[in-house]
Amino acid sequence: MSLQSPSSISLFEEVVQSTRSIISEEEQRFFHQIESPTILLEELESLCSSDQKDQRRPLSCYTKFARFSNGFAPYFDIIALFVQIKPEWLICFWGSIKLVFQLGSCHVAFLEKIADMFESISSILPQYQQHYDTYKRRPPEKNKDRLVHLMSFIYADIVQFCQNVSCMFLRSSKGYPIESPAQTIWKPFNLRFFQLHQRIVKHQRWFDKEMRLQDQAILTHHYADFVEYLRAMEHMNEKQKTQELAKQEKVAAQQVDRIKTWISSSFRPTVYERVVRQRHPRAGTWFLSTPEYRNWKDPKFSVGGINDLNTFQGNWPRRMLSVQAKPGFGKTFLSGVIIDDLCSEYDRPVGPEEIPPTTAFFHFNSMDPLCGKTTLDALHAIAAQLVHAHRDQRITMDAIALLLGNRPSDQHASYDDTVAVLCLLLRQYPTFIVIDGIDECSDAQLLLTTISDIIRGVDCRVVLLSRPDTDYLQEYEDREQSMPYVFSLNKAHNLEDIGLFLGANLNNMATEGLFGSQIIQQSALEELAHRANGLFLWASFFIKYLNSPNLTPYERHAALLQSHLLEGLDALYNEILDMLSRRHEQERAIAADTFKWLSSAITPLNTAALYVALSIVPGQPISDSQYIPEFPNCISVITCGLVEPSQNGILNFSHLSVKGHLESRECRNPGFSLCDASAVHSHLAARCLSYLAHDIPKKPLEELEPFESTNRPSGATISSGVSLRTLQSSSSADSGYNSQASHEDEMPSVGNPSRNILEASFPLLRYASLSWPVHLSRSLSLPRLNYDTKTPAQHFSTAQQLPQSATTIEETQQSYGEWIPVLSQFLIDRFAVTTWVEASWRYHLPPNLSRLVPLVEASKKTISPQSIEGRELRWVILGLKQLVEALNELRKEHNVHLRANPSLIWKRNIQSATDAMFWPVWNSAPSDGTNMPEEMQYTWTNSH
Q1: What is the pLDDT of residue 913?
Q2: Which SUPFAM superfamilies does the entry link to (predicted)?
């Protein structure tokens, strides 16, 4: 749209031609007969009424569009006084506005932003109606061409604005129209709208002056000034272009970074990288040739026209492929094959009007604490990948910047925001999406509903990999299409892959001499592949089992010949556990403890904390010899591959089925079984208490400050209204801590370096301090299991009498024997108790044992009062009651002070009303007894 047009008419014509070149013929058909704002508003109102879900938001946008249309309508009346208006000028203008509204109605969040922009424009338009009434009675006879020429620029600006917005919602390789060399520089959409706003303001000022001024010289001056301003926006000298380029490149980079921060995804393709690294070169390629996959992948993507919306609604199930197979089939490895194949489509040659498809993916993995587990995690990850892939596309950045607006930099995209971004990006670009592990999503129904809603309005292809028992929504099943989207895999599909995997590994083992002089027959390999029953996981664990150094060459060969005895995952897991039980006592203990910590930890332990936890021997401090060498990589060898470290060293079960087997009744090895959850939590509670009683210095965790310091602001102070997240248990109410501090509640480590030093020195302190009451309360609340009879004891609480337990008195005493002595040692040591209280306050969770005491009291009925455990338990109950009274007094009298400075627990000012000498007083430099041992200062202080 050149500013050098010889006449106003040629500029109107150029605008019409530009619109036709940008908007396809399909979209131009929607312009037909829209020659006035009255017809436009009728069309927009009809579009609003067609929205069956929520008419309120589109109607609000309609009101703002109507305000603009009514304000701009007299513009054409003024133009008609001087030149004959062609119908295509009106159709181009009003039709462009209708196209924006119709395309935006599928993305209401974006439409609301656009409606705000139109409302903003309407507020600065000249009073066309007022001036038209004046001109209609006495039209000026001079300067008519100049007036129409300058008025035509606002027409061009508005139509181009509509073109730019329409391009956001259309899948096209044409992009924005290029008006000048300066526009090759990407400018964020909000910046270009600001410039449009400035142009309209200048137009409004010029137009008002034109209506008032009669002096020819003044008119000519303002005319020249306005034209010069418009020309300056189009033509810049080389120096200005260089400066503008540098400026806009900086702005563009900042805008992209801001968008990525707003999307806020912690997505890392660790699962994909692992399966690519571990899979056999030819594994899974058979899937790429199946008719189900080819019928889903091969059809061409639509061009994204407006007429496609109805088609999308009708055939959306055909754009989905649900790949289902039982656990252990190898679906995650298969997803890697699919992702690689789809990514190769991006490099395939395409026609001039085609856009190469982009591929985004996400893996749910409930065993990995760093992997996302919610629908929002998946949406954020997919959106972040697409934003990164299209970060150089002006249309994409404009669209997201429009939705982002002027939000604070620390605000992240909500669920609705993320869905809106995805819908728009999938509308703009052909995209493949691969999601693995649907059954491991914590809110799978929301995920399926979201995918259904998104795919109904865009032409994207989605692959979902899950177990056969995934509960799909009814709307997924009620479809009339003859082409099913569910692809059920069975053991025949990957039989050849399993055979290749087993053959390659067994040949390597034979070359290394692990079978001695025994020869592996081809028939044994074929039978072994059939024994896998389509489970790659079984084949993988069978190879790990044969590689165990505990097996002799004869035993390995016997396992090959008698593979029918190990058929099925449960049988193979039991055989591996039996083999582990024959190892050295320390290795057995490490394996059993690893299983317990990974399965039942209240919150996942990081590598450093688990390293310490596995070294604990209850009742004694950790010595250097107890630490595990070559940790964490040695755990894979100790557990025969049942537990594996990730790329970042975090340990977890190799597969969800391993944890499921250990917690099931199918696990026949009592030394490793996790079936008795009560005993597991008792075991973990004892280790947490032992760590607090023997491995944490019995002194203030940080340097003491004066008591008065709590009256002034502190970097570690939090408001009294700090939020605490109630820790829910599916099996029982936790009777220890009433709540667990969330990560959001923690104070930032910036400005508090001592927190980092503390956690580096004592990695398990936070977990042990906050979790031992939870473990103990769960142990006392959960039903006990007699392993021999597999009969659970009756669940009990303090509100009812204990029924006859299925476990014997001896078994109960043996289970209680783990935590009673350690808790007794802990309660006797007031310094250890005080350190624990300080740590709990430092982690923003004041200790509260009120609900734990009744559970411990109830356990008296299951232990003989004449036994050592029975007598010690009664002393523990007395000690707990005294501690509860002291803790209640702390919260009541010193809550504010301890929140601000937890180390004040060691000062003389903190005393319990029920026991004035309960809390020891720590004097770093007493006037007498400076050289006194720390453990004697309590006695010395009390005596003075």
Answers
A1: 40
A2: P-loop containing nucleoside triphosphate hydrolases
Q: What is the pLDDT of residues 849-890, one digit of tens each?
A: 999 999 999 988 878 777 888 889 999 999 999 999 999 988
A 10 A CB-CB count for 314 gives 12
Q: pLDDT value at position 272?
A: 86
3-state secondary structure 557-591: HHHHHCHHHHCCHHHHHHHHHHHHHCCCHHHHHHH
**Cβ atoms of residues 442 and 292 within 8 Å:** no
Q: Which residues contact 890 (CB under 8 A, 6 or more apart)?
A: 837, 846, 898, 905, 910, 912
DSSP 796: -
| Eight-state DSSP code of residue 628 | P
| Cβ neighbours, 10 Å, residue 287 | 19
Q: Is the pLDDT of residue 224 over 90?
A: no
Confidence of residue 749 (pLDDT cuts 50, 70, 90): very low
d(CA 440, CA 449): 16
* Cis ω for the linkage preceding 632 (within 30 of 0): yes
3-state secondary structure 35-75: CCHHHHHHHHHHHHHCCCCCCHHHHHHHHHHHHHHHHHHHH
Report which of 845, 859, 852, 912 is spatially closest to residue 881, judged by C-alpha positions: 852
Residues 548-574 have pLDDT tens digits of: 998 999 999 999 999 999 999 999 999
CA distances 563 to 520, 529, 530, 536, Å, are 13, 10, 10, 15
847 CB burial (10 A radius; 0-12, 13-18, 19+):
buried
CA dist 490 and 513 (Å) reads: 35
Instruction: List the structure tokens of 370.
Output: 């760093």
Measuring CA to CA, how many Å separate 603 from each of 55, 663, 680, 766, 768?
44, 18, 15, 11, 11
Taking the C-alpha atoms of residue 822 and residue 811, their distance in angstroms, rounded to an integer, is 18
Among residues 321, 270, 313, the alpha carbon closest in space to that of 292 is found at 321
The secondary structure of residue 654, as a DSSP letter, is S
> Which residue matches tokens 């009814």?
474
